[in-house]
Amino acid sequence: MEATGQAAGRLRLGVNIDHVATVRNARGTDWPDPLRAALLAEAAGADGITAHLREDRRHIRDEDIAALMAGIGIPLNFECAATDEMQQILLKHQPHACCLVPEKREERTTEGGLDVAGDESRLGDFVAPLREAGIRVSMFIGHAPVQIEASARIGAAVVELHTGQYSDLDAEGRVEEAAAELAALRAGAALAQSLGLEVHAGHGLTYDNVAPIAAIPQVMELNIGHFLIG
Ligand code: PXP
């Protein structure tokens, strides 16, 4: 029998600390400090810290990445857009992992998955030097098979499946649609693992909606921010 993520080991939790920086920046002070939040998460048993350095630096800043790299004892998952600037920053810091996400200035959070299939050649070139540097590259995508297959072709090690749609439908009480979305996430996770990809999941997860996602056997890591920090 093929080993599933959870059969192979405990499900990992990555805590996204972006919102600590959002609160800090709202007052223009040095606190709350994202590094201190990351250390609290680490002490509480988190397996990793996720931080998203956005192009507009609206929450996490460059100096936060340096402080996290130097200060935490668990892996940093550096989330960013696939731009030349971010590639240079990734190669400079060489975090354990990076998660590539689509980024729009006007959005409140990362609203959709990356279109890997539509940008395959550029993303393949983007990922290659990161892989050579030993960074585990993850693509934040929806569950569409075309996106999962393209992620495998470009040499990503991981796909993080976007659970935002499932979370929204569940919160709105749209039970059947949430169940259909969950089934598609399950199928996507199985396809990804069959192609050799490690499967992560995240976005919009809470105490109330996380259990069915955590129960997907191929899912090895959850990344949760807004709810935990809130
Ligand atoms: N994973 C990725 C790739 C994300 O962009 C985000 C949001 O920053 C999360 C996980 C966490 O989502 P949430 O803050 O809704 O828990």
- Mean of the pLDDT scores? 94
- Going by CATH, the architecture would be Alpha-Beta Barrel
Q: What's the number of helices?
A: 11
| Shape category | globular
Helix percentage: 40-55%
CATH topology: TIM Barrel
* Share of residues in strands: 15-25%
Oligomer: single chain
Radius of gyration: 17 Å
List the strand order in the largest sheet. Answer: 1-2-3-4-5-6-7-8
Number of domains: 1
Count the strands?
8
End-to-end C-alpha gap = 40 Å
CATH class: Alpha Beta
Structural class comes to alpha/beta
Low-confidence stretches: none
By CATH, the superfamily comes out as: Aldolase class I
Main sheet characteristics: 8 strands, parallel, barrel
- One letter per element, helices H and strands E, the order comes to HEHHEHEHEHEHEHHEHEH
How would you characterize this protein structure?
- The chain has 230 residues and is α/β, with parallel strands linked by helices.
- It has one domain: Aldolase class I (TIM Barrel, Alpha-Beta Barrel), CATH 3.20.20.70.
- Helices cover 45% and strands 18% of the residues.
- It is built from 11 helices and 8 strands.
- Strands 1-2-3-4-5-6-7-8 form an 8-stranded parallel beta barrel, surrounded by 5 helices.
- α10 links the parallel β7 and β8 (219-224).
- The mean pLDDT is 94.
- The chain binds pyridoxine-5'-phosphate.
- Pyridoxine-5'-phosphate (PXP) binds at residues 16, 18, 52, 79, 99, 101, 109-110, 140, 160, 202-205, 223-227.
